[in-house]
Amino acid sequence: MREPPLQYVLDLPHRPALGGEDFWISECHAEVMAWLDAWPKWPASGVVVAGPPRAGKTHIARMFAQMSGAAVVSAAALGDVGARLPSHGARALVVEDIDRNPPEEALFHLFNRAREAGTSLLFTSRTLPPVIPLSLADWRSRLLTCPVAEIGRPDDRLMAVVLAKLFHDRQLVVGEAEIAFLLTHMERAIASAEATVAEADRRALALKRRVTVALLKETLDSL
Predict the structure, then answer these.
(1) Tens-digit pLDDT profile for residues 24-76
(2) Which of 56-60, 150-154, 161-165, 207-211 has the highest mean pLDDT?
(3) Fold for domain 154-222?
(4) Distance (Å, rounded) from C-alpha 211 to C-alpha 223?
(5) Which H, E and C letters describe the chain, residue by residue?
(6) pLDDT tier for residue 210 given thresholds of 50, 70 and 90
(7) Stretch(es) of the chain classified as CATH 3.40.50.300
(8) By Cβ atoms counted within 10 A, which residue in 82, 109, 115, 128 is the most buried?
(9) Residue 127's pLDDT is what?
């Protein structure tokens, strides 16, 4: 089977993420990448990277970990581990998913220890800090001192890259017409792209058809 024509969309700059994967950078990542490039000269103890599911927060967290030597921990799993963080001499620490019911007191004490030690904190969250439901006022006050780097809505170029890569990974042959159709008819979200390509693959196999604009229209109608 011949390779799908990827060249016309794979024109975005990229940076390696932990594990050797490529992370494609577009305008929606500009704010976040500016903060990563500014480290370690951050004006605050921590920065919150906020964005919807599948927006690239994990890639960004691991890129930062690779460049800073930071450990990566889940906020929900802090518990007693939080009392031992940040490690002595650590320049940075990544704490993921601070919006998913983490132990707030552990985060509060972690923030204070990191500030005293001069350790930079990079937090990730699906929502902006002011709308995260928090019960501990001290932790809320600390969190709201952190600048927010928000991942914007994916633009056409990024969505085209993602779609082409998803089709390519499934060995599905598509061209410019199919990509262009999805860009104008599909929800502008990475998660939607993944669901659409997976369903198109399933439908093409079940019906023994090629992935065409007609099949993609049926796919979107079924989702």
Answers:
(1) 778 888 899 999 999 999 988 899 999 988 888 988 999 999 999 999 999 99
(2) 207-211
(3) Helicase, Ruva Protein; domain 3 (1.10.8)
(4) 16
(5) CCCCCCCCCCCCCEEECCCCCEEECCHHHHHHHHHHHHCCCCCCCEEEEECCCCCCHHHHHHHHHHHHCCEEEEHHHCHHHHHHCCCCCCCEEEEECCCCCCCHHHHHHHHHHHHHHCCEEEEEECCCHHHCCCCCHHHHHHHCCCCEEECCCCCHHHHHHHHHHHHHHCCCCCCHHHHHHHHHHCCCCHHHHHHHHHHHHHHHHHHCCCCCHHHHHHHHHHC
(6) very high
(7) 27-150
(8) 82
(9) 94
- Can you tell me which residue has the tokens 């951050």? 42
